[in-house]
Design goal:
Number of strands: 8
CATH class: Alpha Beta
Strand content: 15-25%
Distance between the termini: 28 Å
CATH architecture: Alpha-Beta Complex
Radius of gyration: 16 Å
Structural class: alpha/beta
CATH superfamily: Spore Coat Polysaccharide Biosynthesis Protein SpsA, Chain A
CATH topology: Spore Coat Polysaccharide Biosynthesis Protein SpsA, Chain A
Largest sheet: 8 strands, mixed
Amino acid sequence: MIGAPHLCGLILAAGESSRMGSDKALLPWPPPAAGSSAPPSQTLLSAAILALRPLTRAVVVVAGKNAEAIAPIIDASGAFLARNPHPERGQFSSLQVGLSELLARGFDAAMITPVDCPPLSAASLQLLCTSFERPLTRGLWAVAPENNGKHGHPLLVNRELIDAFLSAPVTSNARQVLRAHPQRTEYVPVPDALAKAGLNTPQDYAALAAKISKK
């Protein structure tokens, strides 16, 4: 089912993953069971693309120095690659690169997620898309998921918030822009537990894998 008109998925995957020791976009997802020798069916990146694609009209992935390594996954998943020429400027610079790319492709709304934030269930993503259409009629700019008081990804944004992100200095961040417009975002309760973006180390990944294996 297609979500809001002109909604484009945007995945931020340009980080260097220095603390992880390997590209987070290429980590197996879901994590393999302990002792399993079976090859992974998906990566964090491909899982994110496949999760967003049914609800958007296109998916753009922002890459940095890892562009060549993740390009095959992007191509095979039917997404588009945008390169951040200066990924060392941080994730907000990748957000601005990605938003500029989707505007150039004719989209005026985005479903944004960092690649290191595992995708929500199809039901939760559909709920966010459905909810996204209602706030726009009330002058709001965005919706985001909420569970037990915790906020997470993806963030769905309209053209007004896209323009606010693009007009902010590259040294800013998405949270600062959202806080400057506190009444413009609606948080939508979803059944999924929300894992914050930030799988920065092998220990983080192992802890999340152990948590998932207990479900």
